[in-house]
Design goal:
This protein is of the alpha/beta class. Helix content is 32%, strand content 18%. The strands form 4 sheets. A 3-stranded antiparallel β-sheet has the order 1-2-3. The N and C termini lie far apart (83 Å).
Length: 324
């Protein structure tokens, strides 16, 4: 059988056996397709080719569609220069502000990049002795909350089965009426690291003696505080030096993801897990005992799965081995 393929390369059994139907399809793979087929007109012949008239017809359709689209109403956006330009703003030049982000278990000393007063990027502050310029994905995504179109734009008051928008003046009147009734007042807030916010809350409690601030955190360290107070007489959260540890044994503590200070611990943990020299290099060994898959467990050298009901026995077993 005659072979047309001189390179001895085939794309299948039909190509190798020179199947007639396959060869006919392969030969017409790149045949011309009349342009007016794209316009939805019926095909009147099998041997029609694209010509100049078809091209001009298709080009005219494209220009007409573009003209119609351009005739639609488009919001006008005007660039108006400053009458009195602020000294700290130079159009086209970014301005950076030092700030901090505290959200749940995340603490991050941050540098906020702004252009014409609009924050556009969050980066870690390398001057921080805690995070050393580190951030998390959650901290960097905080800037998106400023441009979230689903944010509540005004105070809302529930009216039967719906919510009614209020002005800030109306909100002040309603809240003051409720505060002056003499009933107990409770302010539910998370852990507050801002001295200014703490001062405002103290002043509020002084003004309304029947008020009390209740702290609540979705990820709470209350059990850790109580355990340290019971065992060491100090109600405090210790600092962990993962950069000095040769062996790390963690029981369900996701210190790289959400436990206490993950940004700080990630940098210290990575410094001990990186080999920077050839001779005499050492690296910490990490054993993670947990009942679920965590970010810390995925980075461990040895991950041991135990049931939540078995964790107490596992801790006692480790304590007995260390005590020997």
């Amino acid at each position: 059988m005659k072979k047309n393929n001189t390179n001895n390369v085939w794309i299948g059994a039909k190509d190798l056996s020179q199947d007639p139907q396959f060869m006919e399809t392969a030969g017409s793979e790149f045949k011309d397709s009349p342009l007016f087929e794209l316009l939805g007109e019926e095909k009147v012949g099998e041997n029609l080719k694209s010509n100049r008239r078809d091209f001009l017809k298709f080009l005219g359709f494209g220009l007409g569609a573009a003209t119609i689209a351009a005739g639609c109403d488009i919001p006008v956006k005007r660039a108006i220069p400053y009458v009195i330009k602020p000294e700290e703003i130079v159009p086209g030049v970014a301005t950076y502000y030092a700030s901090s982000i505290v959200r749940g278990g995340d603490y991050c000393a941050a540098l906020i990049k702004t252009r014409e007063g609009r924050p556009i990027k969050v980066e870690g502050n390398p001057s921080s002795k805690v995070t050393n310029g580190g951030t998390t994905a959650r901290a960097q995504a905080e800037v998106l909350n400023l441009y979230n179109t689903n944010r509540i734009k005004a105070p809302l008051r529930k009216d039967e089965n719906s919510f009614k928008a209020l002005s800030w003046e109306e909100l002040d009147i309603v809240v003051k009426e409720k505060l002056n009734t003499g009933k107990a007042i409770r302010i539910v807030a998370g852990t507050n690291m801002s001295t200014t916010s703490k001062k405002l809350l103290d002043e509020f409690v002084v003004t309304y003696p029947n008020a009390k601030v209740v702290k609540y955190d979705p990820i709470s360290s209350a059990a850790l505080l109580a355990a340290n107070e019971m065992n060491f007489g100090l109600k405090a959260i210790p600092d962990y030096r993962f950069d000095l540890a040769d062996v790390i044994v963690s029981f369900n503590a996701d210190f790289l993801g959400s436990w206490i200070s993950p940004i700080e611990y990630s940098g210290k943990y990575a410094s001990k897990r990186t080999i920077n020299k050839i001779e005499g290099a050492t690296m910490s060994r990490h054993i993670q005992v947990e009942s679920h898959m965590s970010l810390t467990g995925s980075n461990a050298d040895n991950r041991i799965m135990v049931k939540p009901s078995e964790q107490g026995a596992a801790i006692v077993k480790l304590y007995n081995e260390v005590a020997k």
